[in-house]
Design goal:
Strand content: 35-45%
Shape: globular
Structural class: mainly beta
Helix content: under 10%
Number of domains: 1
Oligomer: single chain
Order of helices and strands: EEEHEEE
Length: 110
């Protein structure tokens, strides 16, 4: 899992030049996967990154804390209703509202 600040509005080019910072948590997959398509991603597209954010809950603070704690680590993420990127605010080809994030144990599959 990585954390990166992307440039947002108005120009989506450079935070140092006044664009709004858009922090994002990105899960890098050990190997690309295919997903069942939605209106924004076809089933033939290979996915190697997933933007992770807490699914809406009354108290999402524990999920935000888990995201912050997972940077630089291998993790297991559970979530609901993934969807393909379709705006300038989406920073990976697939987005997943997370319901649970845990640090992976053991070795990651090759």
């Amino acid at each position: 899992m990585t954390h990166k600040v992307f440039p947002g509005a108005p120009n989506y080019q450079d935070v140092r030049k006044g664009d709004k910072p858009e922090p994002a948590y990105i899960l890098h997959l050990p190997k690309p996967i295919c997903v069942a398509g939605d209106a924004f991603i076809g089933p033939d597209k290979q996915i190697d990154r997933i933007q992770i954010f807490p699914a809406y809950q009354a108290d999402d603070r524990p999920l935000w804390a888990a995201l912050r704690a997972s940077v630089g680590k291998s993790v297991v993420v559970e979530g609901t209703e993934p969807f393909g990127a379709h705006t300038g605010h989406h920073h990976a080809p697939l987005l997943l509202p997370a319901t649970k994030i845990t640090v992976a144990t053991g070795r990651a599959p090759k």
